[in-house]
Amino acid sequence: MEMDLAFSGMSGILIMLFYGLIMLGIGVITYMKNKKVHSSLDEYYLGGRGLGTMVLFFTFFATQYSGNTVVGYSAEAYRVGYANLVTIPFFIMIILVYLSFAPRMYKLGKKHNIVTPVDWLEMKFKSKAVSILAAIIMLYALANFLLEQLVAIGQGVSGLTGGTVPYQAGVIFFIIIMIAYGWLGGMRSVAYTDTMQGIALLVGVFMLLIGTIIYFGGVPAAGDYMRTYSPENLGVPEGGGLVRWSNFLILVGIGAAVYPNAIQRIFSAKNERALKRSFTQMAWMPFLTAGVVFFIGIMAYTAYPNLSVEQSEQLVGIMASTLANQNIIFYIAMVLLFGGIIAAIVSTADSVLLTFSSIISKDIYGRYINPEASDTKKIHVGKIIGVIVVAFLLLIAWNPPGTLYQIFVLKLEILIQVAPAIILGLYWERSHAKSVFTGMLVGALVAASFTFLGLTPLGIFSGIWGLMINVAIYVGGSFIFGRVPAEKTETSTVEGSPEFTRT
Amino acid sequence: MKEPIKNKKIWLGFLVIFIMLNPWYFPSGGEPVLIYGVPLWAIVIIIMSIVLSLYITYVIHYHWDTLDEEENGEEK
Question: Is B50 within 8 Å of A287 when comparing Cβ atoms?
Fold first, then answer.
């Protein structure tokens, strides 16, 4: 549909340039302040394990919430109505899952200089098979996640500027900026830009909410309208809808918590206090992000009642354009929102890319290819491979394969299969490496094949089926073959700190 | 040293909240009850979400204390 977008033409280009330059500036300043950043993996990939509460919070925030949270989720709420309310609790579930492993993971990370989640698995299971399989699964999920962000950057930029900035130009511009600041300052740059990006997004979304209430009518009006024209969007999820709902809580809760880039942020915390405070704040963010976005989608009902699926995807763009044309305050606010949405995508992409490189540096190159290499060399290799992967993903983004498309959509379903090894491995000494490996492999295969075949027996997601089978093999195998080393059990009882007892 | 995972009661609490976060306990069909335009069941879910966030805040504050290296000395 043709819309008169407020940011088409020069103003759109200027906004993009402005945001890009700020990000780059943050990267340069970070580099000037920390010139030794390339000297060690800790410095480059974990910001020297020194992120304080605020920066840590925003980097968690930016990693968890992408531009898609605003653009996609409001469109989804518009289409399916209140059944999509599940987005609020599923983001809170992520923090709940963190609580099951982050406290100990943080301590172990500090004690043993762990840089990536694969590091931890290697330390725990001492099994090449487990480490390599987990690394492959993580790299695969990260690459797909990155691909999604690259596509989103292009669509976002061209959509928000009404096509003035072509898709490809938008992607290339922001990727160059992103790689530049990432290379300059590593995790510190990523975390500082996350802070700026997070603030822009929060302010923009909040203003969009206010504008929506003022100009499009509030929630009560939308409720009355829905009751008359589409009461099904007000109803309680039942049957299959209810299973979907609970599957979402589990899949997103566990899957997003074991994202390698999320786990790395646990290692980056300056101290336990900073980590606890960031998590506490994160537990409340879903209301300000997913919640606000959800209600924006609901309120759009009265103003734009009959959008097609395709049109509804542009809902936020349409609403923001309308608001920007009202007055100067909303114009500025919508500039912030547009920039914030793009920034949110970039900030998710940068953390994914950094973690991808870290697994290459530490777990593939540094462990199996050239263990003698200096940290600087490892970082270098991680960077180069990262850029090659981005280039490859760009090719896919521009020529999406028709038939194998699903290969590039699989993310959480596969990634969630590393969760048992990461979480259960922390606490269960009996864990048996070969069973862990088999469970992870079978779980991933089941999840992937069910997804390709479109199988959801009993309405349960393919990823959850994989996870259940995975855990069954892990637990069953460990009960039969697992051993608890006798002398180590004693130490653990004596010292009361089971983390000293690794099998 | 306090770790949330070790306290079974905490997880019982989470389990109860999780069960209540799934909207299985509302009557099906019928005219939706709206309060300020929001269906009643959705309000209950939002309240349960707030309860979950509150509970997480409480657990982080009172049941997670494993002491940092820089502050400890007799970490056991």
Answer: yes
Count Cβ atoms below 10 Å from residue A342 Cβ, excluding itself: 26
- CB atoms closer than 10 angstroms to residue A23: 24
Q: Which two tokens stand for residue A347?
A: 């900030």
Among residues A382, A355, A312, A7, which one has the least CA distance to residue A158?
A: A7
Structure-token match 């402005």, residue found: A18
CA distance A403 to chain B (A): 36
Judge: A280–B60 Cβ closer than 8 Å, yes or no.
yes
* Fold exhibited by the domain A10-399: Sodium/glucose cotransporter (1.20.1730)
Are A273 and A53 within 8 A, CB to CB?
yes
B residues 6..45 contacting A (CB < 8 A): 14, 18, 21-24, 26, 28-29, 32, 34, 36-39, 41-42, 45
Find, in chain A, the residue whose alpha carbon is nearest to that of B2.
Answer: A103
Residues of chain B neighbouring A459 (CB-CB closer than 8 A): none
Structural domain boundaries in chain A: 10-399, 413-503
In tens, the pLDDT along B29-43 reads: 777 788 888 999 999
SS3 of A40-103: the string is: CHHHHHHHHHCECHHHHHHHHHHHHCCHHHHHHHHHHHHHHHHHHHHHHHHHHHHHHHHHHHHH
- What span, in angstroms and rounded, lies between the C-alpha atoms of A41 and A47? 9
Are A324 and A7 a contacting pair, CB within 8 Å?
A: yes
How many Cβ atoms from other residues are within 10 Å of residue A368's Cβ? 12
Distance CA A418, CA B23 (A): 29
Give the one of B26, B37, B68 whose C-beta lies nearest to A222's C-beta. B37
Strand partners, A51: A269
**Per-position DSSP letters for A146-213, written without gaps between them:** HHHHHHHHHHHHHHHTTTSS-HHHHHHHHHHHHHHHHHHHHHHHHHHHHHHHHHHHHHHHHHHHHHHH
Is residue A466 within 8 Å of A423, Cβ to Cβ? no
Task: Confirm if A328 and A188 have CB atoms less than 8 A apart.
Answer: no
Q: State the pTM of this model.
A: 0.88
- Report residue A416 as tokens: 């969630």
Q: Over the stretch A291-306, which tens digit does the pLDDT of each residue have?
A: 999 999 999 888 888 8
Task: Name residues of chain A where pLDDT drops below 70.
Answer: 1-9, 159, 162, 400-409, 485-503
